[in-house]
Structure prediction request, 454 residues.
Amino acid sequence: MRTATEKLQQLKPNSVWVFTKQETDFDESYKSALLFSEIPDKENTNIEDYFTKNHTRYDIQTDRHRILVIPQFFGMITKTPFYERGGTYNDENPTAIFDIIKAVSLQSKEYNTLKTEQVLKLKIHAIIDTANNNQGYNILPVLFIYKVLRGLKEKYGITKITIDQLYTYVMTCESYSEVDEAIEFIRLDSPISEFVADFKSRSRVLTCVKKNTNLFSIDSQYISINPAFDDYFYNNFILKYDFEELHEQLLRDVDYSYFLYNHQKFNINLIDEPETAGGAVSSTVIPVSSFIDEEDETAYIEKVDSIKETNINEKAGEGAHTVEPVAVSKFDVGRRFRTNPLLGKIAIKKAYYSCEKDYQHETFISKKTQQKYMEAHHLIPVCFQKEVWDKYHINIDCVENLVSLCPTCHKAIHYGTKEVQRKMITELFTRCAPKYKAIGLNITLEEIFKFYKI
Prediction:
């Protein structure tokens, strides 16, 4: 472990967790998302002008359309790509979680539960860090702050820390491996960073947490865990969900976007005081990611079909091939991998809801999306993700490796005779070859045949 002096020497004025300098009130951002969702002919509308003329409809406190960056921050409007500054918003869409929030009464317990979920999902490096100050940081800030404060209380009986300690030793951490280190530095009452004033000026994380949850008691000098929520949060969230697995899965922008934009059903309310002090301790650890084990084909197909075109921006899939894949099981890292349904949906949308084996193939209308029903298929099977990554450094859970197939063709490529499989794979490889070349994947048809054992 580093010494506190070594930690301080590595800090810079921009080392603190950064989101945005704008207002981070969830309720205000929800109203902005609501107005955005009602813009007619959004692709061809001057959104800045529309927002200026219509913001009073929902009593939004500013007439500047740039407030829309905050509902993007909370996952109610897409932002593609995450880290680029600015944007016209014409290509963006309300998300699936926004549709769910919109269906409940404002300030009801249901609303506050959904609001809590979105605050808990916030990640460093997050979508508003356009200056890349926190690039490589892989932390959910609410969870990290809680873990440090809970650790100090359990190990040393320390129930509160100064705001300066929080900024110096907590809000400069990059990964969960630093939790114990932060606890020790604070326990030893280590010196405060010379940049703490810069940290407070640059970051709005603490303001965001204070405004949108009641998990912590925060004043001008100190922060502590709110005792009314401590055991409730610990028993029903910390012990319940597998965050170690989750953090490894959110490295790609497209994976974080799918997690942020879709309902994860945390069922935690950190705004209304819980009716019981602690709640029941969960005996089962639940994976919180909605990504699908590649062997569970049916679940993947169903999730892809459930995604509405109006809730996505197909640009979200760009660059997905560049990030090393994360294995589902630490005991079987050569075979099992998660797949992101959003990428499958983008591939189907790009194919105009047609079968890429033969565009004339007929299918039915999906009751979920009211579009022609298609299924997404990884031409290079993701069970060979490790082999492909080791040889080509390409993550094959990407749009370039996904094809849109009608149900009959999808079954045929899995269960047809070797002759049927070879013919289909050859035709689909011809379609995918230019996309493979564009991302630097120089795989051969014969290699793919070997993967299918044909």
About this structure: The chain is about 40% helix and 5% strand. The CA atoms of residues 134 and 362 lie 48 Å apart.
